[in-house]
Structure formats: structure tokens, C-alpha cells
Design a protein that fits this description.
Length: about 500
């Protein structure tokens, strides 16, 4: 007798596949003019061409953009001969790995020769060898959902590893065994976490097991490649999912050891919150405060997200059990800023990004000295001055850092920060806080004191800046009098 539940599941899966396939047809029709034109040129030259990998996956998901990936049996030099007369521009950055890039109209295109690549046990660079069939090319790809192709111009769908079914089931599997796949390219373990975060897919149990057992293999991959994958994960729609996978498999211990270190042992009375869970919630709350993608400067903000992820990494090193039973983390923001700088430097982030994220980590507790609003105007000015161009991000990070379940406390903190932002806005309107400078510039100071450039002028400038922060704007005569008074006191 047929099983009604199984029939229902089969029908549901079939419906999902047909929906997926309809979306793919629509997407492929959109890119067809440029793709078919290019395919005919390869065909006339005696070669084959197929849309492949992420492009096919995204077409099936209804999210194909203008970046198109193709694979071919033509060798790179033959690819160059075909695309040069056709494309608007051509680049050869990846030609050593069999990839030729070009731009045609609004499309950025990469054409890669069938290939297989693998690491030896000590190398950080893959050894590339070319293949002769698309099946050989697809089996070396990272996951089944990326191992599908559409042969052009005839539009033949090629899926030897069940990628379409895995796509419908929203699961990540490898074409061959995960052990072979991760041995060939250990960075694929990072990609598993990244795709889980980007696509909101589950990772197959056997893949998770291999990631856990082989995590140490990631050590042979360069810091730059690891960083790039981490960025894509953090900038995804579901970073928490990918970060959890990195922590649970042990990969985070190599990539970002400060994150699993946040899973502090809690004392028996639970006198402090789970810092790891708190951090993941802060990250999600910070993401919710980002401006929409369609607004100027909107969309995922790497600086804000990294700051949210790293803001409490100084806590394990500063945790103290006080005599009254409380748990303290004194100066964890200062320690955390130094740790952030060290970790981001090791991951080869740019100096500017390191500086910005470290600064936000250092400042993230500053607001908690605001209390019920007793800050002086001077303190507000210093808050704005210290944050500088990071002020809007600091607003978002500070608001995100409230994860208490006590609604009364959460509302009180929110109102207090509303009050601080209102005071900042009022002072900015009155005093141009965004560009706080002394009321006298360096040239004026030298002219008034009759002294040339040197350390004394620097000290005078700093003194006048402190007066500006403390008292607000002064008239020119008041500033001159204050400068002369300071100068007289210098002897």
C-alpha cells in the first residue's frame, strides 16, 4: 500500500524542483543574448562552452546577477583569441590558473578551462592541470550545488552529482567524498561555512564531520584567502549560521580564536551572561540597524559587523570574580581594542580597516558613563571628537550592545541614548561639532605669540583645542586673551 506521507514528500520535492527550474529558465533567458553570442564564437572555433558553478546555482535560485562564469575545453590562449575581438575589455589576472576575464556590455565574464587542482601537504598554492571533459571539471568543484552546468548554445542541463536536488533540499554536499575535496583545497571548509551563511543552507553531516576532523589542514592556506572568505561570511545575510559552524568544527580556533574563547565557563550562580551568545546577538542587532541597500551608503557594513563581532573579545583576559560575588571585566574595551588590532593585522586587513574597527571596540563602552544624562557639554564634545567619522557606526554599535531581557532596563538605555543623540545634534547645529578645531589656527597662534614653528606652538594648539572642547566656541578676542594667559603661565 503506498505511503501517503512519502507521496506527499515526493510531490513537494517535485513541485520545488519545477519552481526552481522555471526560475532558472527566466534568468537564463535574460542573459541569453550575450551568453549565446559568446557560445557560438567558441563553437565556430571548434570548442565547447557552458555556464557553470555559481552562475547556474544562482540562476536556479532566481538571483543571477551580471557576473557570469563559464567553463570550456579551450586552453587559455585559445580563449584569448576568441574573446579579444568580441569583448569590450579583457584581463589576464587569473590566466595562470586557467581563467580569462572580460567585460561585455553590462556583464563581467570569466571563462575557465576545464581543470583539476590540488594542494600538496606543504604548499599554499594550488597546482593546476587542465582536463578534457566537463564531467572531469565538475567533479573537482567544491559542492554539488556548484557542480552544475548548462551547455550552450543548446541549453543542455548537466548535473552528474545531484546538485539540483540538493539545491531544492537546501543542503551542501561535496561531489566526491568531503575528505578528498578538503584535501584538494582546504579553503573549501571555509566556503562551506560561507555558503551556509549566504544561502541559509544546511551542511550535510558527513561534510561537518570532515570539516571537524580536517580543520588543521586550513593552516596551509594563506591569511589573505582565509580573510576573504571570512569577509564574505560576515557580510552575508545569515552570518550567525556560518560563524557557529566555524566554532563548532574547530575552524574558528585557527581563523578567529578570540570567538570560541568567548564561550566562558559560567559560574554556578550564572552571575554573568554568555558572552559568546551575547556577541552573536549584538552582531544580528547591528545588522538590523544598517541602512537599506537602496539608500546611499546602505547595505552590509564590514566595519560595523567586525566591530560587533569583536567588541567583547577582551573579556576572557579581564574576567575577575569579585569578593561580593559579582563578575567584572574592567578595561576589557582597551584590551579588546589591542587584541582586535593584533588579530586583524594577522589576517592582513588594511591599516585603515584595522584602525576603524579597533577604535569602535575601544569606544563601545564610553556611553555607559552617560548614566541618566549628566554629561557636560564638554563630555559630549569629546565623545563626538573621539568617534570622529565613526560616530554613526558607534551609535549603532552602542545600541546593538544592549541584549538584556529586562524590558525596563532596555527601554531606559534606549531613552538615554536617544537623549545623547539629541544633545549631539543640538551641539552640532550650534557649534559644527563634526570639525572641532581651536578658535585660533596654528598661523594665528604663531603671529600672536611671535614664535616660529616648533613644540611650543603644538602645545599652544593643543591647549586651545582643550578650551574649545571644554567651553565651546569663543570669540576671537576671548581666544586671544586665553592664549596670552596660557603663554604667560609658561614663563
Amino acid at each position: 500500500m503506498p505511503n501517503a506521507n512519502n507521496d506527499s514528500l515526493t510531490q513537494s520535492s517535485t513541485n520545488e524542483l519545477s519552481h526552481v527550474q522555471r526560475r532558472a529558465v527566466s534568468e537564463l533567458l535574460r542573459v541569453s543574448p550575450v551568453a549565446d553570442d559568446l557560445a557560438r564564437r567558441f563553437q565556430e572555433a571548434g570548442f565547447t562552452l557552458a555556464l557553470v558553478g555559481g552562475s547556474v546555482r544562482d540562476a536556479l535560485l532566481g538571483r543571477l546577477g551580471n557576473d557570469l562564469d563559464f567553463t570550456t575545453d579551450a586552453r587559455p590562449q585559445d580563449v584569448l583569441k576568441i574573446v579579444r575581438p568580441w569583448a569590450d575589455s579583457v584581463w589576464e589576472v587569473g590566466i595562470a590558473f586557467g581563467t580569462v576575464g572580460c567585460r561585455k556590455a553590462d556583464f563581467d565574464i570569466e571563462v575557465t578551462t576545464y581543470r583539476s587542482e590540488a594542494y600538496d601537504r606543504t604548499s599554499r598554492k594550488p597546482e593546476v592541470s587542465y582536463g578534457d571533459s566537463i564531467e572531469e571539471d565538475l567533479v573537482r568543484r567544491d559542492f554539488t550545488v556548484n557542480a552544475m552546468a548548462v551547455a550552450l548554445p543548446e541549453k543542455e542541463f548537466i548535473d552528474p552529482h545531484g546538485g539540483l536536488e540538493d539545491l531544492a533540499a537546501r543542503v551542501l554536499r561535496t561531489p566526491g567524498t568531503p575528505e578528498e575535496s578538503f584535501s584538494d583545497d582546504p579553503l573549501r571548509m571555509m566556503r562551506a561555512a560561507r555558503f551556509a551563511a549566504q544561502l541559509d543552507f544546511e551542511v550535510a553531516p558527513e561534510v561537518v564531520t570532515a570539516m571537524t576532523e580536517m580543520s588543521g589542514r586550513l593552516e596551509i592556506v594563506s591569511a589573505e584567502r582565509v580573510r576573504d572568505e571570512l569577509n564574505k561570511l560576515i557580510l552575508s545575510d545569515h552570518p550567525r549560521k556560518g560563524l557557529r559552524l566555524l566554532v563548532d568544527t574547530g575552524l574558528a580556533a585557527l581563523v578567529l580564536p578570540e570567538l570560541p574563547a568567548l564561550r566562558l565557563e559560567r559560574d554556578e550562580h550564572h552571575r554573568h551572561k554568555d558572552v559568546y551568545e551575547h556577541t552573536l546577538i549584538v552582531l544580528e542587532q547591528a545588522i538590523a540597524l544598517e541602512a537599506p541597500r537602496d539608500q546611499p551608503g546602505g547595505g552590509p557594513d564590514l566595519v560595523l559587523r567586525l566591530a560587533a563581532l569583536l567588541h567583547d573579545i577582551g573579556k576572557p583576559r579581564t574576567r575577575r570574580f569579585e569578593k561580593d560575588g559579582r563578575v567584572s571585566f574592567h578595561h576589557h574595551e582597551v584590551v579588546g581594542a589591542k587584541m582586535t588590532k593584533s588579530r586583524m593585522t594577522k589576517l592582513k586587513y588594511s591599516n585603515e580597516l584595522v584602525k576603524d574597527v579597533s577604535k569602535l571596540v575601544e569606544l563601545h563602552l564610553r556611553f555607559h558613563g552617560y548614566g541618566t544624562g549628566e554629561w557636560t557639554d564638554s563630555a559630549v564634545r569629546r565623545y563626538v571628537r573621539d568617534a570622529g567619522p565613526l560616530l554613526e557606526r558607534l551609535h549603532k554599535l552602542t545600541r546593538s550592545d544592549c541584549t538584556t531581557r529586562n524590558k525596563r532596563k532596555a527601554n531606559a538605555l534606549s531613552r538615554a541614548y536617544d537623549g545623547l543623540e539629541e544633545r549631539i545634534a543640538k551641539l552640532q547645529e550650534q557649534e559644527e561639532l563634526d570639525a572641532i578645531r581651536p578658535d585660533l589656527d596654528g598661523n594665528q597662534i604663531m603671529e600672536i605669540l611671535g614664535v616660529g614653528p616648533g613644540p611650543q606652538i603644538g602645545k599652544a594648539y593643543k591647549h586651545m583645542l582643550e578650551l574649545r572642547l571644554e567651553n565651546g566656541p569663543m570669540s576671537h578676542d576671548e581666544a586671544v586673551a586665553a592664549l596670552r594667559e596660557w603663554w604667560a603661565a609658561q614663563g
